[in-house]
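hiii so um. not sure if this is the right channel but i have a protein structure encoded as tokens and i wanna go backwards to a sequence. like what aa goes where. can anyone help
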């Protein structure tokens, strides 16, 4: 149907006769095609109750909450003992950092510089996030973020989609939709975790605190400030004692003998006497042991805080999450091989020693030095070649992506760490020196009775050979090199 711009009455064709106003309902797109590029209806688009100011105001609130979530989830990784939560927090901290980045970009597009993103948008939101950071137990922390904060974010996104002008603020609505999509899954995973860990009695005991969190939101007019505030900001409960980051890594009860450094997998991996297939076991061990990298990286991010710009955090958070993924690749590898990884001592003294002996800049130096060392032919390419040769396609797949991730990490280091030095060599030397001054405490841990540095390799190797239906290689079975005299890069400890 043709679109009549103005309807001229039949009985009066004079040019100066009054024109009738078009009826909105009569307006049609060409042959009924979706109008406004699919953004919404004309009826909605003629409404004008939205502004750049309102849009930016709501984004700043969401930005504040996501940034605090990123910081808090990151800060919990090191001392959270439960492996599944350590990796979940690594994932969710990264997802929150991604939302922070998209919101910052969007706010920057809305005539907002200076962005004012470092301002606290409402004291109620600040109290809410302080309370959650200070939650004294894992269970309270889980309930606080996954039952209060993430649902409030989802409500704010839905409200944003309803209120924002679909045409004028389409870029914002797209971001609100993407946030909702990712955070909906985050929320569901949190709820599943709570169902596994928090019982009715524990929940009842934390009800007063949950009410306090809800009051923070009500005082703020809800997360996005669209409701009328009907109460005051509650007094602090848990945050009376402010959150203090725990730098010492903790592991759950499945991790046995974590001080054990009685097997040096790198020494096995680079020994040409051993077969590629046998080496995949050591690579799965190296992968699952990487759980210590998120534990260590979290300490860098917490300690450096606002000394570095947001993009540093965004990229490092991605790297931290990759390292958690690498650890889970090791877990999957062992399960696929029919090997119970909880019988293997998964060493955590690298993150423990670095977190307690070095400052954040020194730790970053060690991280860069190690990752840069993974790039030459003997590093990640070698691991991938071994995996491809081994006849274990899963190991091949994991090493393929592990290598790709490590190339990305070396680039992140070149962007954020190397420019602080006059040259790449100086940056590498500094990292090497920092690593050299870390005391491994190999003998001290033994003397203190923390470990016997038991050689766990023959047992794991024999189990694997049994599963493969092959006889163990006597030379591989006899492997007995520890970390007493060398580091993971096989450099001698002086
Ligand atoms: Fe890694
Ligand atoms: Fe890495």
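sure thing!! here u go:
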């Amino acid at each position: 149907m043709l679109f009549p711009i103005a309807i001229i009455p039949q009985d009066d064709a004079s040019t100066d006769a009054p024109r009738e106003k078009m009826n909105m309902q009569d307006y049609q797109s060409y042959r009924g095609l979706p109008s406004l590029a699919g953004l919404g209806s004309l009826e909605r688009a003629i409404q004008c109750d939205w502004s750049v100011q309102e849009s930016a105001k709501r984004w700043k609130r969401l930005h504040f909450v996501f940034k605090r979530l990123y910081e808090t989830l990151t800060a919990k990784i090191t001392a959270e003992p439960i492996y599944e939560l350590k990796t979940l927090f690594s994932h969710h901290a990264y997802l929150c950092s991604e939302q922070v980045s998209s919101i910052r970009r969007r706010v920057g597009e809305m005539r907002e510089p200076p962005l004012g993103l470092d301002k606290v948008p409402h004291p109620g939101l600040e109290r809410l996030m302080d309370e959650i950071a200070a939650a004294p137990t894992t269970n309270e922390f889980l309930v606080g973020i996954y039952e209060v904060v993430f649902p409030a974010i989802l409500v704010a996104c839905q409200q944003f989609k309803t209120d924002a002008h679909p045409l004028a603020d389409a870029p914002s609505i797209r971001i609100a939709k993407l946030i909702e999509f990712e955070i909906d899954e985050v929320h569901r995973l949190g709820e599943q975790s709570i169902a596994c860990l928090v019982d009715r009695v524990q929940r009842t005991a934390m009800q007063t605190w949950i009410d306090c969190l809800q009051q923070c939101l009500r005082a703020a007019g809800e997360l996005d400030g669209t409701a009328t505030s009907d109460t005051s900001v509650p007094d602090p409960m848990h945050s009376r004692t402010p959150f203090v980051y725990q730098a010492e890594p903790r592991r759950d009860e499945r991790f046995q003998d974590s001080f054990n450094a009685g097997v040096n997998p790198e020494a096995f991996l680079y020994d040409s006497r051993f077969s590629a297939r046998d080496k995949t076991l050591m690579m799965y061990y190296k992968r699952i042991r990487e759980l210590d990298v998120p534990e260590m990286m979290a300490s860098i991010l917490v300690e450096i805080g606002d000394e570095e710009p947001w993009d540093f955090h965004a990229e490092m958070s991605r790297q931290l999450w990759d390292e958690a993924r690498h650890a889970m690749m090791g877990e999957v590898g062992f399960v696929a091989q029919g090997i119970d990884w909880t019988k293997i001592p998964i060493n955590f003294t690298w993150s423990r020693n670095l977190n307690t002996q070095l400052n954040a800049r020194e730790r970053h130096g060690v991280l860069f030095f190690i990752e840069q060392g993974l790039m030459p032919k003997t590093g990640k390419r070698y691991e991938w070649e071994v995996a491809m040769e081994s006849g274990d396609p899963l190991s091949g797949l994991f090493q393929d992506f592990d290598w790709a991730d490590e190339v990305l990490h070396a680039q992140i280091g070149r962007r954020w760490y190397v420019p602080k030095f006059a040259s790449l060599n100086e940056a590498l030397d500094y990292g090497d020196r920092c690593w050299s001054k870390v005391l491994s405490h190999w003998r001290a841990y033994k003397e203190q009775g923390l470990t016997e540095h038991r050689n766990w390799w023959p047992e794991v190797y024999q189990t694997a050979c049994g599963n493969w239906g092959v006889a163990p290689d006597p030379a591989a079975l006899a492997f007995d090199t520890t970390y007493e005299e060398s580091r993971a890069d096989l450099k001698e400890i002086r």
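oh and Residues 1-14 have pLDDT under 50 and may be disordered.
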